[in-house]
Amino acid sequence: MATPSDGSVFRRRSLFKAAGLGVAGAAGLPVIAACGDIESGGGTSQTTSGFDFLPEYKEWPLPVQPDLVGEPPNHPSGFTTYPEPVPAIENVPSNSGTYEITVPIWGEAPSNDDPYFAAIADASGGTTVNLRQADGNTFAETSVQWLNANEYGDGIMLFSWMLFAHPNFQETVVNSFYDLTDIVKGDISERWPLLAGLPTASWGQSVWSTDPADPETARVFGIPGSFSGGPGNAMFARTDILEEHGQALPTTVEELLEVARAVSDDAGGRWAFGGTDYLTPQWFGLAGGDGWAYIDGKLVHNCERPEYTEWLEFRRTIWDEKLVHPDLPSGTLDGQALHKAGTIVFQLDGMSWWQGFIDQSTAEGTGGTIAPLGALSAKGRQPLVHVNTGVDSWTFLNKDLTKEQVEEFLDFANFCSAPYGTTEYELLNYGIEGTHFTYGPDGTPVYNEVGTKVVQAPVNHKTMSGHVQQFLTGTPDMVQARFDYNASVKDFAEVNIFEGMRVEGPSEFKSAGQVLIDQQNDIAFGRADLSAIPDMVETWKNNGGEVGREHYTAAYDKLHG
Amino acid sequence: MAALQTSAPPAPSRGQARPRAKNKRTLGQRLRHDWPLLLLTLPALAQLAVFFYWPSAWNIIAFMDYSPHRPFWENPFVGFAWFERLFANPYFMPALLNTLKYAFANLLFLFPLSIVLALVMHSVISTKIRSAFQSVVYLPYFFSWVLVVTVFVQTLGSDGLVSNWILGFGGERLTFMSDPDSFLFLAWLQWAWKDAGWGMIIFLAALASINPSLYEAAAVDGASRWRRMWHITLPGIRPVIVLLLILHIGGILNVGFEQYQLQRNAVGYQTTEVLDTFVYYRSVIGTEGPSFGTAAGLFKGVIGLVLVLIANNVAHRLGEQGIYQKS
């Protein structure tokens, strides 16, 4: 028998290798063949009201009444003077535990060694809560991995908008976090009067079902943050620049376009707009949330409505006419800095920018005045204003904690829920007098440098649990202005068609939504024509839109019968 | 004159065993002999096992409907269902093609640039100029992509330095940074600024290993600068060039993430969607989950392995060492 040559594929070693691969393959194939279908990523829907196991609501009497009385939640009440704070908790507990809670932070993370944290531990009854502070910009995505690996300490704070990054948050919640139901069920006002004073809707929105198909398995898993209402974002105009150009605040989209043309000067380096993506759909009557509206007996997505074309036409027009900063698509612009400099006249931002602009422009001496645009609409339609409709955040506790530890942490959460006008609130929100703030001439606390750095951080103990009531607070003029603004737009607040239910869309629907956003940007920045919209919508329908409609329709039917 | 060789080696007597080409020892003998060396490799092996082989074993979740919240063995096998979903996705193929486009462009236009830079550096005699040149070229490698893109926007953006300078002369703003048609050139400029210096350092290390006497001998023989580079320098660094080329080809589908993700809005998803951004937008933002992302990663790994084996085989056939010595 001839010996196989070196070049032959039948060399001894090659033959062994091939045989090995073959055996491995033969062993693996039956495993692979005996497979099921993918069942994950189908989306969930969770009722958030009508439970009998929530904490019983016991109104917590406010120590001082607001001087501006609104209609919460969309039109919150406010304080134009700083009240003399009074203690909220009469019987301070005696605790000694230490907990580590993972929280997002934007900007420089303050040290846990600051006297602010020690003072809180002391005032709350001896519980030390150390913050594990992580970058807020990537917190949503990275929190997925921490939760999967159970590497988040004794608890984690998640904002409601962060849930988008979690493939199946319902599954994560019921498998990772402590089930609080048996501890907080019924009357808890004896030990935790402030938690008992949180709105029932807040606790309802903290419920997830261990089995999504079985409503009977619903349980409380999170300590709710504050229940916010009213508009969370606005388009802020530099009113001083408008005045310079003889323009008034626009009240319709058509007027806005005219004003934008009047104030823009491309060659001179001034443009009307920075970003226009996430607020402007409401000017055209498009829905907030996941984009569904109930029209003529069925759910219709924003992209299927004629107003969607109008909205994209508007964005395209302002781009073509050079009314938008030309480097906006680069994503590297510091919109707030450009707004302060007057390079951008209209800045799309959160409501906190109103006060932020005043504080920063005063401190930097840059001057200028701003005001939010009211409820705009196009073509004479009834305006629509997207509003917050739920709790801002939750603090979830690790399922590995003991019942006693959870109860101690609830003591701490009870402390954090103290509202405006209490000494607890003052400590949590302003720090220690002399160390972090001093009282201004009108009696209002004013941060010093340390306070700005440590206490004014957007997330810390002050956001660990919701306040029994949210108020407008700050400088008197600003409180009055925000109060009046909320009053002017509250009648146009969008009605949430999924009120009382939390719906998480299927993964295909979310993927299709991402592609739609990319395609919208193509049109808005001149890379595609408006004529591409029908194809975009068809692609969206075929690649997840219809699956999404089915899912949301089932949820809607379950909710409305 | 004394004889250089005092005695001839003894001829092997008839019947005496000829010395073996390789000294075959038992495993025990080899362990006793080599244990210090083996001990030295242990940390590296442990590091590889913990941070590479163990995570690699988890690639199996690409064949499962995996959830981290149930025991591993309770995750159902779904065969190639995630791969089917991956290949059926209408945006997968464009992402793959874009990836290949940028990978080959990088290989064709950046790889030679690093060699050229190394040769230029090597020819500079002044140490001051050399260190200054090296710092200027090498430093951007340590910048993050966020910083690189920001610097480009500030310089070449529509409201950047150059645009405003052109406006001053009555010209038009540059639209270079937001034009999908010029993105490949823009990407090349960014690679060249950020990465060419790093590649240069590796080739410089290879150039340093060339025996200077070869140059001296060639110069004495009258070889020109060009001849010396062609006949001494390039052959001297050829094994390193081939090795890096093979490794580059193996990682051809790993074109990076940040550079494309950061400029997605500026030039559009159709231009910047590569496999890594595709996985991010489907797996994380689209919440397809870890199995989908792992399937995409495994696909990239298998393609990379095949390409490395092919390139290595070609290198061996051309007489090069490749990534390992052919036995």
TrEMBL record, chain A:
<protein>
    <submittedName>
        <fullName>Extracellular solute-binding protein</fullName>
    </submittedName>
</protein>
Automatic annotation (TrEMBL), chain B:
<feature type="transmembrane region" description="Helical">
    <location>
        <begin position="137"/>
        <end position="157"/>
    </location>
</feature>
<keyword id="KW-0813">Transport</keyword>
<keyword id="KW-0472">Membrane</keyword>
<feature type="transmembrane region" description="Helical">
    <location>
        <begin position="236"/>
        <end position="257"/>
    </location>
</feature>
<keyword id="KW-1133">Transmembrane helix</keyword>
<protein>
    <submittedName>
        <fullName>Sugar ABC transporter permease</fullName>
    </submittedName>
</protein>
<feature type="transmembrane region" description="Helical">
    <location>
        <begin position="292"/>
        <end position="311"/>
    </location>
</feature>
<feature type="transmembrane region" description="Helical">
    <location>
        <begin position="196"/>
        <end position="215"/>
    </location>
</feature>
<feature type="compositionally biased region" description="Basic residues">
    <location>
        <begin position="17"/>
        <end position="26"/>
    </location>
</feature>
<dbReference type="InterPro" id="IPR050809">
    <property type="entry name" value="UgpAE/MalFG_permease"/>
</dbReference>
<feature type="region of interest" description="Disordered">
    <location>
        <begin position="1"/>
        <end position="26"/>
    </location>
</feature>
<dbReference type="InterPro" id="IPR035906">
    <property type="entry name" value="MetI-like_sf"/>
</dbReference>
<feature type="transmembrane region" description="Helical">
    <location>
        <begin position="102"/>
        <end position="125"/>
    </location>
</feature>
<keyword id="KW-1003">Cell membrane</keyword>
<comment type="similarity">
    <text>Belongs to the binding-protein-dependent transport system permease family.</text>
</comment>
<keyword id="KW-0812">Transmembrane</keyword>
<dbReference type="InterPro" id="IPR000515">
    <property type="entry name" value="MetI-like"/>
</dbReference>
<dbReference type="Pfam" id="PF00528">
    <property type="entry name" value="BPD_transp_1"/>
</dbReference>
<feature type="domain" description="ABC transmembrane type-1">
    <location>
        <begin position="96"/>
        <end position="311"/>
    </location>
</feature>
<feature type="transmembrane region" description="Helical">
    <location>
        <begin position="35"/>
        <end position="54"/>
    </location>
</feature>
